[in-house]
Amino acid sequence: MLRAAFWLLAIVVVTELVTTLIAVAGCFWMIVVTGRLPLGSCSRIGDQIREVWAEVLAAILALLLASKNGGPPPSE
After folding, report:
1. Are 30 and 36 in contact (CB under 8 A)?
2. Number of domains present in the structure of the chain
């Protein structure tokens, strides 16, 4: 079960990496290349990305702590 949780969290991290890259590239494209958005218009996206990464980091640390403890003793 713990291994499945690690895999699920790895998928979440990879998905978050991809969406972060797409969001940053989209902001860069809209501000620098097309010039449609004013400077500073993507600052809220940075705040949202920080919030999501903080939650993902908390989940990773909780899972690592759970794996260190070894879980409850087996029942007879």
Report:
1. yes
2. 1
What's the CA angle centered on 27, arms 42 and 15, to 5 degrees?
100
Distance CA 36, CA 45 (A): 17
Q: How far apart are CA 45 and CA 38, in angstroms?
A: 14
The rounded distance, in Å, linking the Cα atoms of 55 and 44 is 17
Query: What is the per-residue pLDDT across 13-59, written as a single tens digit (0 to 9) for each?
Result: 899 999 999 998 988 888 888 877 787 777 888 888 889 999 989 98
Domain assignment present for residue 66? The answer is no
* C-alpha distance from residue 17 to each of 1, 38, 51, 65, 75 (Å): 24, 25, 14, 23, 40
